[in-house]
Amino acid sequence: MTEVILAAMQPLPGERINSAAEVARSLAEEGFQAERLTIQMLPADMRRAGAILVDRIRTLKARAVIIAGQCADASAIGVEAVARNLRDFGGVRDGGGNCPAKEPIIAEGPVSLPTSLSADALVAYLEARKIEVRSSKDPGAHLTNHVLYEVLFQVRQDPGRSSACASAP
User: Which sequence spans correspond to the domains of the chain?
Assistant: First the structure.
């Protein structure tokens, strides 16, 4: 049984790479894609990525999910403690051509959902290993937040739910 899924998005249109996806890809190449960890690449498409990841969580019966996102202007890994029920891509289209502006992800969903993995524990773990990291309580409203919110909302509907957390380099 897979215990952890590390998910990352493919690059957005016009981008050559997604740094989070490159980290996931390098882990897979180094043999970390084993029974306990599955690397899941996701399309940079808000209409497909969350559904694919929720399906993989259920199929693999994963206990935890880490969603690695990309933040172009960040110099440290940011660990999100909450996902917002808001998508606003700021005029940037995702890989599916979607460019939402100030709309809810799930109409009947709560304003925000806390991650079920301890963001503080993940920050402490990374800091202890001398990795530059920052804790965040505002994930923005872009694609990684969208996928995190969708996953948190869907797994909460499932009694055998998984834990989830997101990070952005």
Answer: 4-168
